[in-house]
Design a protein that fits this description.
The structure holds two protein chains of two kinds. Chain A contains seven helices and no strands. Chain A is mainly α. Chain A folds into two domains: 54 residues, no CATH class; 162 residues. In chain B, α1 packs across α2. Chain B has four helices and three strands; from the N terminus they run αβααββα. The relative contact order of chain B is 0.16. Chain B has a single domain, classed as Winged helix-like DNA-binding domain superfamily/Winged helix DNA-binding domain (Arc Repressor Mutant, subunit A, Orthogonal Bundle), CATH 1.10.10.
Chain lengths: 227, 110
């Protein structure tokens, strides 16, 4: 009877597999302990009473929707910050490499380079500020017991902030790519190209991961809030 | 009404020390004299929510039965939140007690 109840709960919690695993283990421990402590004469009657006391699986699972959304959005906030820091490290490594190898943008492209550099700097700073704001916003907000309009608004604002941070980071990475192309222009192909190319690849991969993660969490939140 | 105060009830039950979900429910029943007999399953979303909010910390242990068991502990933020909610509740209950003191339900005029 308990296994059947747990299977029903697992089906209802299917929207978040890792949360489901954790909850099922806790609930199984709870039900077994409650059956052992139950004074009903036979085991099946004890199991029936314990399951009745525990409550309806659908009602319990619906309360976990908010927990799941809070978990996913907070993780997305942390992921955004990690990606921004990774892009910064890759950017700094490339600049240090240029200094070490004494590579510079050719004279006639210097004006374009400084304009793109300016765009890069402000886009990156914007993504950092907005990303930090998104993280603070989602961390400081309360987690309600039910999915209410205030929490819906809070999530919408958070996803907007994350989207804005990701967009600014995309602009920064595109600017980096342009600057890298200007740096490498007219230079003979050599093994030294590996560092800027690799750092650019890391930046692009980081931004790709961030965008796909934010998109995934947003879609998941939209599907959970519709059910 | 009970549901609106579930977070405070859970935090208060854990103020005495770390406990797993079943023990939290038993503590709530014991300390409320059996008055708070809520569906036991509702305690787990509350525990997870409070953990997400940083008011509780959870860790896995192994019970005597050999099963894995998640034990929850009040964090510093949880202690502060409990003290805040306690103060608000006391203010509210004093206000209601003041209102009710001396008032007597009217006799039905009919």
């Amino acid at each position: 009877m308990i296994q059947n109840y747990l299977a029903q709960l697992a089906r209802e919690l299917d929207f978040d597999r890792s949360l489901s695993r954790c909850v099922l283990e806790e609930v199984e421990d709870h039900l077994c302990e409650a059956v052992a402590a139950n004074s009903a004469g036979n085991d099946s009657e004890a199991q029936r009473q314990v399951i009745a006391n525990f409550g309806n699986v659908r009602a319990i699972a619906s309360e976990f929707v908010v927990v799941s959304l809070a978990r996913q959005s907070r993780r997305a906030g942390v992921a955004a910050l990690l990606v921004i820091v990774s892009v910064f490290i890759a950017m700094k490594a490339r600049v240090a490499w240029y200094a070490a190898t004494q590579w510079a943008i050719c004279e006639d492209m210097r004006a374009v380079g400084s304009l793109v550099g300016l765009i890069d700097r402000y886009a990156f700073l914007s993504s950092l500020v907005v990303g930090l704001g998104a993280w603070f916003y989602i961390r400081s907000g309360p987690i309600p017991s039910a999915f209410d309009p205030a929490y819906r608004r809070q999530l919408r604002h958070f996803f907007l902030l994350c989207g804005a941070a990701a967009a600014a980071l995309v602009v920064s990475v595109i600017s980096d790519a342009v600057l890298t192309a200007l740096q490498l222009q007219g230079t003979d192909l050599s093994a030294e190209f590996l560092v800027p190319i690799l750092s650019m690849a890391i930046e692009i991969a980081c931004v790709g991961i961030l965008v796909s993660r934010i998109r995934g969490v947003t879609l998941r939140a939209a599907s959970l809030t519709q059910t | 009404m009970l549901k609106g105060h579930l977070d405070m009830i859970v935090l208060a039950a854990l103020a005495a020390g770390s406990a797993h979900g079943y023990a939290v429910i038993q503590e709530i029943k014991r300390r409320s004299g059996g008055a708070f007999d809520l569906p036991e399953g509702t305690i787990y979303p509350a525990l997870h929510r409070l953990e997400q909010a940083g008011l509780l910390s959870g860790r896995w242990t192994t019970a005597d039965s050999g099963r894995r068991r998640r034990v929850y502990t009040l964090t510093k933020a949880g202690n502060r939140a409990l003290a805040d909610r306690h103060a608000v509740w006391k203010q509210f209950s004093d206000a209601i007690a003041g209102l009710l003191a001396g008032s007597r339900p009217r006799e039905n005029p009919a």
